[in-house]
Amino acid sequence: RIAIQIMTGILLHCLGLLWIYLLFTQTIAFEAIYIPLALLTAYPFWSSLLFIFSGAFTVFLEKRRSPFLVSYTLGANIISACISVIGLLLLSTEFIIYSKSSKNSLWPHVMVNSFQNICSY
């Protein structure tokens, strides 16, 4: 349970780096620009730090029990849960906006089509 928060933070940060890579390479590959809403808000970067801090507080609480650490860990876990809900809302909003306004075939469609082609073999 403790490592999950830290690993979620690391994974989310890597996802943000992937989105930045796709943002810079899509102009060359698709001659179009699509900026993910989560990347505009920098959600992968600030939320990953909060998840890592929340996991670190939990690790410290396991090693030393004190009322001070219990209150900080509880607060960090509540904030972490709220940040998760914000991330779900951001991604859901992005999927809705993209599905309503997409006329060009950008990287999400190309990746899905490539995956379908791979699976058909």
Automatic annotation (TrEMBL):
It is found in: Membrane. It comes from Nomascus leucogenys. Keywords: Membrane, Transmembrane, Transmembrane helix. GO terms for biological process: cell surface receptor signaling pathway. InterPro entries: CD20-like, MS4A. It is a multi-pass membrane protein. The keyword Thylakoid does not apply. Signal peptide: none annotated. Belongs to the MS4A family. The chain crosses the membrane at residues 12-37, 43-62, 74-98. This is Membrane spanning 4-domains A5. One of its GO terms (cellular component) is plasma membrane. It holds the Pfam family CD20.
